[in-house]
Amino acid sequence: MGRKERNDEEKQKHKKVVKYIIISILSLIIVAGLVYICIDLYIGHKEKQEYDSLANYMQDNENTEGQEKEEKPQEKTERMIKLEELHNENEDIVAWLEIPNTNINYPILQGKDNSYYLNHNYKKQYSASGSIFLDKDVDMELPSSNFLMYGHRNKRGTMFEDLYKYKDESFYNEHKTINFTTIKEDAEYEILAVFKSRVYYVNEKNVFRYYFFTNAENEEEYNDYVSNAKKASLYDTGVNAEYGEQLITLSTCEYSQEDGRFVVVAKKKQ
Predict the structure, then answer these.
(1) Helix (H, G, I), strand (E, B) or coil at 34
(2) Distance separating alpha carbons of residues 202 and 214, to the nearest angstrom
(3) 259 and 184 part of one domain
(4) Which residues of 41-66 are buried (b: 16+ CB within 10 A; e: fewer)?
(5) What is the signed CA dihedral for 256, 221, 160, 101, rounded to 10 degrees?
(6) How confident is the model at residue 58 (pLDDT cuts 50, 70, 90)?
(7) Which of 9, 131, 252, 256 has the fewest CB atoms lying closer than 10 Å?
(8) Looking at the structure, do residues 205 and 118 belong to the same domain, yes or no?
(9) Are 103 and 218 in the same domain?
């Protein structure tokens, strides 16, 4: 065999080795990807089961669906008592949020900052889904004028994914009320505004930064918030709020614009 033939043979062997290495690497990447997907699906399924179990535990058997809650200023409801038990296990659990006939039925966490519960669950374990959490500046003891809450959206349909369905007025017409329970009260809220927004740059002027509002210093500040929310609303709910009425604001991501947000504002029923 001549030198040229030996060189050609060596080149062919080298090409085969390189091809084998590339195929092996691609195979490992595919296998790793499939393993990751399977693990993610398993974690998501397990997480959903845990929250479903917790929601079933929190079910208030004293009230039936569609029935008006009775005013019991000195009597704790079953849900309030169960919430207090959860609070004793983790003091960061400060409330419970439920939008009937949706997947939104979760404990509300409040940390020392607005970062921790972006990627931790109610057991303080790491979770890509995070938790529904109350803004750190909300004072549950006063309470603040506005219970401002945040939550992720995800393809699993959990956390605040269903909140985005309020973009359609037909969905709103079938889901007009929100149940919000604290250790001190079990209340029902009616939605007054649904709007799209975003996180604004510092130098932008005359914009509605809804995410700064947790407590009104005066009547004008409160009315400005309600007025701006109503003005930005995708449709007219026919509901308004007067100074002194408790508000809740639910905020999640909205992907049609950079740093987009989708927001639902409601007031406590009297």
Answers:
(1) helix
(2) 19
(3) yes
(4) eeebeebeeebeebbeebebeebeee
(5) -120
(6) confident
(7) 256
(8) yes
(9) yes
